[in-house]
Write a structure and sequence with these properties.
Elements: H1 7-14, H2 16-19, E1 26-28, E2 32-41, H3 46-49, E3 59-66, E4 71-76, H4 81-85, E5 94-102, E6 122-130, H5 132-138, H6 195-205, H7 215-223, H8 227-230, E7 238-245, E8 249-250, E9 262-270, E10 273-280, H9 282-287, E11 296-300, E12 303-306, E13 315-319, E14 327-331, H10 352-355, E15 363-373, E16 377-382, E17 388-399, E18 407-412, H11 417-420, E19 428-439, E20 442-446, E21 452-455, H12 470-480, H13 484-489, E22 492-493, H14 506-512, H15 523-531
Parallel strand pairs: 4-6, 10-13, 15-22, 18-20
Antiparallel strand pairs: 1-5, 2-3, 2-5, 3-4, 5-6, 7-9, 7-11, 8-9, 9-10, 11-14, 12-13, 15-17, 15-19, 16-17, 17-18, 19-20, 19-21
Pfam family, one: RADX
GO molecular function: single-stranded DNA binding
Protein name: RPA-related protein RADX-like
Length: about 575
């Protein structure tokens, strides 16, 4: 049990009788602190948990609160989700006058200590988020707790376990700002272990592996309608090398109950051909972080299906965690017969000079010294079902010494959050499988589904096959000849950046927008601004009369009375 001085215990347990009435929430007068915020997609049970909030979007948020003595996981009531979307309700802030109501739960946290009847599951229905200055004035705070993960959960002495979404049958959370990266301890860095499988694996690793079926044989058997391939599970062993690895693809929808709605596509090659391998659901949790381009793997107990999504693959190998449970093993190259050893991945490096005359749509690889790393930004988009979500990206500027033109990369999330956090100026960065984009006279590079990023400090360059290629060696020679001070003087991070540059005339602007400028006026502009979310990037076209112009020197801050003189800052 929590200590008697526990604010959460005193507030929620003392008012248990009143809490059984949804119309009578319990209010905590003391400060509570947010130690984590989680996001996940709702499922068909949403209308049961929130019968009056069916139009408040597809995402739900759970927050973990502490009073310094224990932790409690609660769900943010949908009307409050705007606080999370604008990053007002975030990790580290304090809440005052927090109101809680009891709620049904889809699944309890494995370590929350909540009773099986769900009596200790709550919703945060209202709260006042206070700033850091006001929090310091009142003293205390989560900063006084050295390690909040050591605090026990509400109504228990246990502080360990894996936290799950409260109001949906999902096994993992989503990152707050995109659907592409992974987050949480559920994503394994090491492959799963099983006692029975380990014994078999140890016996097999002691001998040389040989493939019992090839890509060409699978394709021929499937296209000819052979029952051994089309009618069930392929139990033979397929050995191949991963040459491309896609980003994580999240397909969770609010009308589906899938617990782990992820898939990953791998391009697998053996001496006979290339095939698309699709990892589904919990297989992604167990293997996505473990598998990488260049790995030699063996597959068995999989299904072969028609591929309808790709123009380059006619079949696909479907790998599931059940029905059947596929077997995956990463093999050392020494354990594979030379005639079965797949070829190594190939790279097509272009330097900044060669990129100048490459046409739109060309796929290539680049290496360069990172001299500018932009701030993360987000743009809205929609999936095939019309559901709106955000894509997160940042701009990178790479230099390689082959020309005076830098390589500009619009880098979207690549499901490598650890790598993207290390993209600091003066790092050596390799971007594989990027696409050339041409807009008028301007050119930049952009992700593809299979883009991978390799960066200094992650141990990538020393183990990758590209390190011996001539374009890479030429770049290293140029890098060694550079003066450190001159390079440091060109290094930039963050800030506001637009590329390609916006049009300078209304005529050009209308040409790009098919003759419809889409001017916003007054209340329309205000409504669009209020709709903006954290890190969201949008471009507005406004039509207004200039009533005042104020000049100030660079670096000088001018304070405006916004109530008297609404202003627009021109960058």
């Amino acid at each position: 049990m929590a200590a008697p001085v526990c604010v959460l215990h005193r507030t929620l347990i003392r008012s248990r009788g009143a809490l059984n009435q949804a119309s009578c929430p319990s209010v905590c007068r003391d400060l509570l602190y947010v130690v984590d915020v989680h996001r996940y997609t709702r499922d068909p049970g949403f209308s049961i948990y929130f019968p009056h909030s069916v139009l408040h979007g597809a995402d739900l948020y759970d927050v973990i609160l502490t009073d310094g003595h224990c932790r409690l996981q609660v769900t943010v009531d949908p009307p409050l989700r705007r606080l999370v979307e604008t990053n007002v309700l975030r990790r580290g802030v304090a809440l005052r006058h927090a109101s809680f109501s009891p709620a049904l739960t889809a699944q309890l946290p494995q370590s929350s200590g909540a009773s099986e009847d769900g009596a200790d599951s709550y919703r945060l229905v209202s709260a006042e988020v206070i700033g850091q200055d006001e929090e310091d004035d009142q003293g205390g705070g989560v900063s006084q707790v050295d390690d909040w993960t050591s605090l026990p959960w509400f109504r228990t002495m246990d502080s360990t376990g894996h936290v799950l979404p409260l109001r949906a049958n999902r096994t993992v959370f989503l990152p707050l700002w995109n659907n592409t990266d992974f987050i949480g301890a559920g994503w394994r860095e090491a492959p799963p272990t099983d006692d029975d499988d380990d014994d078999d694996a140890d016996a097999e690793e002691a001998e040389v592996r040989r493939a019992s079926v090839t890509v060409a044989e699978l394709r021929t058997a499937f296209l000819s309608g052979h029952r051994s391939v089309t009618g069930g599970v392929v139990r033979k062993q397929l050995i191949g090398r991963i040459v491309n690895k896609s980003r994580l693809m999240y397909y969770g929808r609010q009308d589906q109950n899938c617990e782990c709605p992820y898939k990953v596509e791998l391009d697998l090659v053996d001496p006979s051909g290339l095939v698309c391998v699709v990892l589904w659901n919990s297989v992604c949790l167990n293997w996505y972080r473990r598998l990488k381009p260049g790995d030699v793997i063996s597959l068995s107990r999989f299904k072969v299906k028609q591929n309808y999504r790709s123009n380059t693959h006619d079949i696909e190998v479907s790998v599931n965690s059940r029905n059947p449970r596929a077997q995956i093993c990463v093999l050392p190259e020494s354990s594979v017969l030379p005639e079965d050893l797949p070829p190594a991945p190939e790279f097509t490096f272009y330097n900044s000079l060669q990129l100048l005359d490459r046409p739109h749509g060309v796929i290539c690889d680049v290496i360069g010294l990172l001299t500018f790393s932009g701030r993360p930004e987000r743009i809205r988009t929609k999936d095939a079902h019309g559901v709106e979500f955000f894509l997160e990206y940042r701009w990178l500027r790479l230099e390689d010494g082959s020309s005076d033109y830098p390589v500009m990369v619009k880098l979207f999330s690549t499901s490598q959050p650890d790598v993207q956090r290390q993209l600091h100026p003066l790092s050596v960065v390799v971007c594989s499988r990027v696409k050339v984009i041409r807009v008028d006279q301007h050119q930049y590079l952009r992700n593809t589904t299979y883009t991978q990023v390799y960066c200094t400090g992650q141990g990538h360059h020393s183990v990758m096959g590209y390190r011996k290629l001539h374009p890479v060696r030429d770049f290293i020679r140029w890098l060694r000849s550079q003066d450190d001070r001159q390079v440091q003087s060109r290094a930039l991070v963050g800030g506001f950046f637009v590329y390609p540059p916006p049009p300078v005339s209304l005529e050009t602007f209308m040409k790009h927008h098919r003759g419809s400028p889409g001017f916003l006026q007054g209340a329309e502009l205000q409504a669009e601004i209020e709709r903006l979310c954290y890190r969201e990037r949008r471009t507005f076209c406004i039509q207004a009369t200039v009533t005042m112009v104020t000049h100030c020197r660079a670096g000088q801050v001018t304070v405006f009375n916004s109530s008297s003189f609404p202003c627009v800052l021109l960058n």
